[in-house]
Specification:
Blueprint (H helix, E strand, L loop, with lengths): L1 H25 L16 H31 L8 E8 L2 E6 L33 E4 L1 E5 L4 E7 L4 E5 L4 E5 L5 E5 L5 E7 L11 E7 L1 H11 L22
Parallel strand pairs: 1-5, 4-10
Antiparallel strand pairs: 1-2, 2-3, 5-8, 6-7, 6-9, 9-10
């Protein structure tokens, strides 16, 4: 539907452009011609102008704007998208990836510490394969990325200018956004909200990887599998009594 609408609007744009150039050439100033300033009295012209106005208003407000809003407000399919949780704090960005199982581990603010910036619950099996990074965001190219942003302390602003992505992160709220990078590269994420004395250094690297590089990065940064505890040796059982 949206391709047809945009195609029709492109046709109108080209048509009006050709008409405009034709008017410039036909009615240019030259010797032997005098401008006529009296308005055209033909009734048909007024009807044509009115019809064109109605059609273009309908295209803009009846089709183009609703189609664009619907397109931008429909989140990507969760099964086909990459998922990342992002938590801002003074003055760093924390990223959580769900690992191979596709499930995020539970977090608890009481568990937050120097080696556990998100408070990941070590007892939760869904979090055993989660990848945690600080100030380094990896996303695959040509794949929708579904992001959930929040904040530990004050309002920050998640901003990747090259991807035209910007969203405030608010304490106590998890706000979903999504985007798709169209070319690999190394870009910058910066906080766009004054958040304290260290605001100037609240930056992170955004690395848009090819599918192969992204899979390699996941494999290299995945937590090592935890070995199951060895079964306790059976206690010596007393020999059965002889009858």
């Amino acid at each position: 539907m949206d391709e047809k609408v945009y195609g029709f609007m492109l046709l109108l744009f080209v048509g009006w452009g050709i008409f405009f150039v034709w008017c410039l050439i036909k009615y240019r100033a030259r010797e032997g011609h005098q401008a006529i300033y009296a308005p055209v009295q033909a009734i048909a012209t007024k009807y044509i102008e009115g019809a064109v106005l109605v059609v273009e208003v309908f295209l803009l407000f009846g089709l183009s704007t609703p189609v664009w809003l619907a397109y931008k407000n429909i989140p990507p399919d969760e099964k086909s998208a990459a998922h990342v949780r992002i938590v801002g704090e003074q003055f760093a960005w924390n990223f959580q990836y769900p690992g191979k199982d596709g499930k995020f581990g539970k977090t608890d603010s009481s568990l937050i510490g120097g080696d556990n910036p998100l408070g990941l619950d070590p007892e939760d099996k869904d979090g055993k394969d989660d990848i945690i990074t600080v100030n380094q965001l990896h996303v695959p190219v040509h794949k929708p990325v579904y992001v959930e942003v929040s904040s530990k302390d004050v309002i920050h602003s998640f901003n990747i200018p090259v991807l035209r992505v910007k969203q405030d992160t608010i304490p106590g709220q998890k706000i979903p956004i999504w985007f798709e990078a169209t070319q690999p590269g190394h870009f910058e994420l910066a906080c766009a909200q004054l958040c304290g004395l260290g605001h100037y250094r609240m930056r992170a690297d955004v690395l848009v990887d090819t599918p192969e590089d992204y899979a390699k990065w996941e494999a290299e940064n995945a937590p090592p599998p935890q070995e199951a505890p060895a079964a306790a040796a059976p206690e010596n059982q007393p020999a059965p009594e002889k009858k």
